[in-house]
Amino acid sequence: MLRTIHNVTRKSLWGLGLLIVLASCNKDLPEPEPIVPPTPSGSSIADIVAGDPNYSILKAAITRANLTTLLSDKSKVFTLFAPDNAAFQFSGIPNEAAINFFRPGQLDTLLRYHLIGGLAYGSSSISTAFPNMYLQSMFVLAPPSTALPPGLRMPIFPSRNSFGFFVNNIPVTQADISAANGVIHRVAAVVAPPSQYLWDRINADPNLTYLKAAIQRADSGAAASSSLQAALQNPAANLTVFAPTNTAFQQILTGEITLYLMGQGMDQVTASATATALASSPTVFQNPALFSVLTAQVVQGIVVYHLLGNRAFSINLPNDDTNYPTLLNTAIPAHPGVTISASFGYTGVTAATIKGLGNPSAANLLINPTPAPNGTSDQLYINGVLHEIDQVLLPQ
Amino acid sequence: MRKCLPLTIALFLASVLTNAGFSQAITLTGTVRNSSTKEVVSAVSVTIKAAQGGTYTSEEGNFKLTVPHLPVTLIFSSIGFETKEVVVTSASEPIEVLFIPTSSLGQEVVISASRLPERILESPVSIERVSSASIRTAPASNYYDMVTNLKGVDVVASSLTFKTPTTRGFAGSGNTRFNQLVDGMDNQAPGLNFSVGSVIGLTELDVDNMELLPGASSALYGPGGMNGTLLITSKDPFKYQGLSMQIKQGIMHTDGRERSLSPYYNWSLRWAHQVSDKLAFKLNTELIQAKDWLADDYRNYKRLGTSGQIVPGTRATDPNYDGVNVYGDETTVNLKDVLNQIAQQVPFWQSYVSSLPSDIPVSRTGYTEKEVANPNTVNYKISGAVHYKFTSKLEGILEGFWGTGNTVYTGSQRYSLKDLKMAQYKLELKAKNWFLRGYTTQENAGESHNLTVTTQLFNEAWKPSTTWYPQYAFAYLNAKMAGSSDLDAHKIARAAADQGRPVAGSDLFKSLFDKVRKLPIPQGGLFLDKTDLWMVEGQYNLSSAIKFADLIVGGNWKQYVLNSEGTLFADKPGHPIAINEYGAYAQLSKEIVKDVLKLSAAGRYDKNENFQGRFTPRLTALITPVKNHNFRFSYQTAYRFPSTQQQWIDLDIGTGRLLGANRFLWEKYNLISNPGYDPSTVPPQGNNPTRIEYQEVKPESVSSFEVGYKSLIAKKVLIDVYGYWGNYENFLSRRDVIQFPNGVPGPVYNGYSIVVNSPEKVKTYGWGASVEWQLPANFTIAANASSDKIKDVPAGFHAYFDVPKLRTVLSLANSGFGPQKLFGFNVMWRWQDAFFYENDFAQGDLPAYHTVDASISYKRPKIRSIIKLGATNLLNQYYRTAVGNPSIGGLYYVSFAYNVL
To answer: Do B313 and A10 touch (CB under 8 A)?
Structure first.
């Protein structure tokens, strides 16, 4: 009996030993958990464009530019300013067939200018402050390199005020169309990249010949590299030019020269007639007899007083009189600058004035945002924006 | 003082030689055999009844003893045998003694519980014992690991060879609340503050026993033992003689999870020899070598000063990834600041940059522990002792331990302890009623370095952050502007900034890494530490003088000499910092009712020159209403002075500066004239900036009450249960403060981690229970369970309690089966519950785990040898004992031990 108990005990103890070995099973040690970014939901930008008949011209352009793959990639992020068919037509491209007149490379450049990479800018993230935002489009002028780590991209200028959302002063007709890989804003016209410098406009515009002459007078004696003309041709510059028209220059020159001649002892009628004759041509700035009045320094002071060191489209101009520094402030930091105010409607600015410290009244911005050569406001160039005005601004 | 040592040895040897004369008397010889197996029994104590003198049987079971006259009564005793008295009338014939084996359950004698020998069953406080016999057959790969299976013990494994046991909570490597004494010497590295446990100390063959006192034990063992004390005693060369050796060969990493299959070596050798009745010596050496377990927790850690939490994220999915066991990625910068600086230079990026979030934390690319830590863990120990009996009553012992090794330790960071050297030398005089010993611990950190700091500085040496981050920022922006998503842009940016990054293991990597790790802090990761400890202590048993009770008195003086050349402590090269401590204790014990009630009272006073003196009492009662049923009650207090690091550390750990409590350090960093702020009160975390003023730090203390019951039923079942309640006061911990240069919160600040006393009392409580049952056919089944809990932890306070609410051990052993009962086996299953682990290095959930150790042994009595096949973590189920510590897999070995039976 006792023996049996012993045997049973012994067997069960061996069993217990085996059980102990088998019983222990650990869970796997905790492993690092990757952060899974939310899977982008919805259609890609390319899909949205392809699926909307209003974008058929844009779609054709994307296809011809070979950008479909890029814009279908849901792992990427873009802000696209998308011209619809009406926008293309407004900009002179009537239909899909017209797209074939462009080389794919041209379309690639054009379309990349409509794109901002890496961020989906919703309309609410567009600043309403002056000056408007200065963002980098995906149109690459110079790729990043060791010598130029940031690279160079053609800038694009979204802006916003209480009436709407614009890009390069072109109204956004439908904002915030969200896509899996970013956001689309429908625009009223093709957002064409600038191809000229400010100087190209000033140099060629028959209505700005006095401004051109004034700049040349201001640059006389200056080294070519530090001249105003050079700045207006520099691709890295970023300026706003308030360009007085020829009439504006003639007006101020006539007045100033008359005063000068009267100071020289000439009677008012003769002086006025002489001054009108002298001021009738931009060569007035090259007239040695007037060098003592129109000194290079005085002219330079006046010209730089028309330049802002940033790119101000009219959309973000202030509603009420607000002073802004001009390039004159680099020489005279305490100068109050120019006083600007503007009023707006749904199509953009309706009226804008700019007043120099020395002017009795404010100059008007000549509003016509159509493309060059006829346009006179919000004229975009590689290195700045140009607005024509009807008075010469006087710093004192 | 180092130079004194040879002189001391010379003096000692001189006294040995002059005392060599001894009077002639009658010499008895004989042999002791096991009555059932007829095998010889070695190390049996042979004493003369009612007289002085005695000896032990040799490895062949023989003894030789000189007696003054005949007839005499000899007493033969050894654990596991019935004590036998033999009357000897004649010296002409060798004496043959048949020794009857018996159960040793509950009969073992322990010394540490009362500093007096007593049966373990009658100990007035909880105590656990590991004997050399159990070490022989245990599955553990190293004797030190055996404490893991004792009840109430938690062991934190920082590496294969660096394990830190503790009891009653507050586990962690470098635990300063648990004392370890080896042959009476404090085993704590005096500068690094961790007990070096298995790194130096005894070799496996030289361990006689380990006694573990869970719970407060300062009253007898001095400051430090707040949570417990482990006492390891070596084998007496008079008792255990001859040449013994053990070769353990194993394999690890069998599944290639961490590393490819690699060998484990553990070889040890012991030689003890009795030159004469008076002189005996021993020499020991041991080598352990293996490829270490790997700390491979690559989870993402969000660091907030010395605190933090595990968060989702990997290197590929979190630009600010900071892996727990990935180093160098602690360096983090808000990329937005770099981008803003770039936008200043590149104005046309301004709008784009300002559209980005204000907080873009980016960490540098780190290297895993596998890539930066030396995989070889080596431990080489050598020790020796000379014992000389001046008279039969007075014995002198000169003992030395020396150890060196490579291992990894977890402190505020992971530290590669490379070529760490530790030495301990002791000179002791021991009489029946008193002892006097002096010893020193000499530490040399060798080429030890902080892996985090070294890797961070390695990254800086390869490419400074001032270059790396701008490169990253440019590449990040360019990638984004090309349409990349944020995460992709980060990936591209990292690849760009990391271009040419040295591949771990390449020549470039090695040469650069070696350069950095060999430079002292703060230029590199090396910490120089040659801190010493000097200690003198003595004890006298006055029982025979006062008669009415047992009284022991003792005292000690201790000096720390902190010498880190300014790399760890606030000392300067050539000007070490000395810290003096002294203490005295007395214990009175009395058997009030014979065999029924025994009371004892002990008290101890200690003074550290930097802190107020402390008195700690201990009261115990042992009630034995029925024989073999013992109830124990004890009230103990214990305390500890801040560790040497808590007093004098001055170390930049990359994420802030660790400061000791000494006022000198507060003055050095202007924290008195310009106190720092509690970071949680300063914006953006809070809006009520609160300063932390200087306060003198007090020693922390615990008072604990314990009840226990131990009984032996039918000589077969040993039961032990206990419950305790502890109250911690003036709890020493660290807190973060941030100091602003002009005293007003702003963006620029310096972070410090300072030592403070917690204003709150923290309570701990717990229980433990064990049963050991001797069954027929040589089976023994044992089980234990224990629990430790903490309460009243103030919100935001890190107690670092770090123990599971429940742990259990179940074991089944057979001490003899098969032919001639020469086989034995041992299976042990251990389980512990999950808990939240926190230390300075990392905090997070530690999963529950099971593990099984097993061994089968085969005895060869003729050559007194054991062959053992063993496995720890038999099923190779990886587990970790702390967040950030290695995952431990299976180790399988076969060992041959000669002359150990």
So the answer is: no
Cα gap A194→B527, rounded to integer Å: 63
Q: For residues B412, B416, B419 and B423, what is the CA-based torsion angle, rounded to 10 degrees? A: 30
Cross-chain Cβ contact B478/A135 below 8 Å: no
Phi and psi torsions of A323, nearest 5°: -90, 140
Q: What sign results for the dihedral spanned by CA atoms B28, B31, B34, B36?
A: negative
Give the one of B352, B484, B781 whose C-beta lies nearest to A76's C-beta.
B484
A-chain residue closest to B780, CA distance: A13
Q: What is the CA radius of gyration of chain A?
A: 33
Report d(CA A13, CA A30) in Å as an integer.
Answer: 35
Q: Does A138 touch chain B if contact means CB atoms closer than 8 Å?
A: yes
Nearest to B288, CA basis, from B165, B376, B206? B376
CB B286 within 8 A of CB B204: yes
Residue B593's contacts (CB-CB under 8 Å, 6 or more residues apart) are: none
Cis peptide before B684 (omega within 30 of 0): yes
For strand B879-880 and strand B887-888, is the pairing parallel, antiparallel, or unpaired?
antiparallel
**Angle at which helices B465-481 and B486-497 pack, to 10 degrees?**
140
CB A394 within 8 A of CB A359: yes
Pairwise CA distance, residues B424 & B447, whole Å: 20
- Classify A260 as helix, strand or coil: helix
Give me the average pLDDT of each 10-residue run along chain B (901 residues): 44 43 68 84 84 81 84 85 86 86 81 83 88 87 89 91 90 83 89 78 91 84 83 92 94 93 95 92 95 94 78 94 94 93 90 92 95 92 95 92 92 89 94 93 91 93 96 95 93 96 94 92 84 93 86 92 88 90 91 90 90 88 92 90 89 80 91 88 81 88 92 92 92 84 82 85 92 90 94 78 93 89 92 90 91 93 91 93 94 94 75
Phi-psi domain of A380 (left: phi exceeds 0; alpha: psi -120 through 50; beta: other): beta
Enter the ipTM.
Answer: 0.89
Which tokens go with B671? 């924290």
Dihedral sign for Cα B345, B350, B356, B357, please: positive
Element (H, E) at B817: strand B807-817
Residue of A nearest to B345 (CA): A150
Strand bridging mode B95-99 / B26-34: parallel
Q: How far is A254 from chain B (nearest CA, A)?
A: 41
For the four alpha carbons of B355, B358, B359 and B365, in that order, the dihedral sign comes to positive
C-alpha pair distances (Å), B687 with each of A261, B306, B679, B865: 71, 22, 10, 72
- The Cα–Cα gap between A311 and B556 comes to 83
Inter-residue contact A275 to A258 (CB < 8 Å): yes
Question: Which B residues 102-161 touch A at CB under 8 Å?
Answer: none
- pTM for the predicted model, two decimal places: 0.87
Q: Which residue's entry shows tokens 């009891």?
A: B167
Chain B CB within 8 Å of residue A149 CB: yes
Beta bridge partners of A174: A186
Angstroms from B412 CA to nearest CA on chain A:
22
Judge whether A125 is closer than 8 Å to chain B, CB to CB.
Answer: yes
B468 lies within 8 A of chain A by CB: no
Residue from the list B298, B474, B850 with its beta carbon closest to the beta carbon of A149: B474
Query: Does A141 contact B at CB distance below 8 Å?
Result: no
Q: What length does chain B have?
A: 901
Q: Nearest CA to CA, how far is B36 from chain A (Å)?
A: 21
Tell me A269's DSSP state: H
Q: Which residues contact A133 (CB under 8 A, 6 or more apart)?
A: A126, A127, A157, A158, A159, B351
DSSP code at position A35: P
pLDDT tens-place string over residues A167-185:
998 999 999 999 999 999 9
